[in-house]
Amino acid sequence: MTSQLEVIGTATVPWLPPTHDFRPGLATLARRAEENGFTGLLVFYDHMVLDPWTVAGLLLQETSMLVPLVAMQPYTMPPFTAAKTIASLTSLYHRRIDLNIITGAAPEELHQIGDPLDHDGRYARATEYVALLQRLFGADEPVTWNGDHYRFRNLRINTRLPEHLRPRVFVPGSSTAGQALANRVGHVTITHPEPVDRFAQSFAATRKDSGLDLGVRVGLVARPTAEEAWAVALDGHRVDRAARLRTLLKRESESDWNRRLARLATEADVHDEVYWTGLYSTGRTGAPLLVGSYDQVARYLDRYLALGVTKLLLTKVDTEHDFRHTNAILTRLNS
Description:
This protein is an alpha/beta fold. The chain has helices at residues 23-35, 52-62, 79-93, 107-112, 119-138, 176-185, 196-201, 203-207, 226-234, 241-250, 256-267, 278-281, 294-306, 320-330; strands at 6-11, 40-43, 67-72, 98-101, 143-146, 151-155, 169-172, 188-191, 213-223, 270-271, 275-276, 289-293, 309-314. The protein is built from 14 helices and 13 strands.
């Protein structure tokens, strides 16, 4: 693994209500990720899964260095509650917690809670939300804030953190509003990337002089040979008419990255012999997969790194088997 590259896995968070004890599996995953040199684990949020802050606490308790990357949705809690939660966990474990700022890609969830804001309005609210959090993490004195979405007068909640323990802010998305959010309050800008040549001309080109770290989220399916890898990737895979129609509809999605991936998926399942949209087309993941031999996938990843990518967010690396194959790729990035 290159010295600059940070690898962040995904914590598999079960849907509620739990039907059995998920704690041992999450604890094992956290320890396994740390043992394999992963920087952190991304903890998702939607209305149906376990609370991401509770999961983050478990990850902290089970490891000594792993950094939870928690999906932070501004409508779920007031900023002073978020600041108190983050500062409390950070103080208890003397570890940083990073934030993955999300603004709502599922229209049904926004309707459920009566969120009146449009796409750009949600990004504007998130910008103010993160700026206020950063003020609360850096201030000794009471905070007064008069914004478009939040107002506080002489708020004192004792959430100041030393600079090295303040959250890094990851901002997903490639829309104009997403880029504005990243430029204003972000540290890392991330996306589900297009094939590498298109990525070079689109997302990477627009972020080149931003001063932000660049991250991509992908899945990896690699084996000693390409034939073995594709056999694993295509096992049980089937894209029916309903899945194709859903993919066509996503071409009109409010989400910029969703539109991009949907257009790619309708053009072809496979690009550059490695980049695969098959699982995206069936709705089993929101990210593309890189499929091939260890050497093929490592070479393709290396092309992203050459464009400035320093954060690699991976989907579904859970078992010892998964980590072994992933390490076979990552070690080749050094050679």
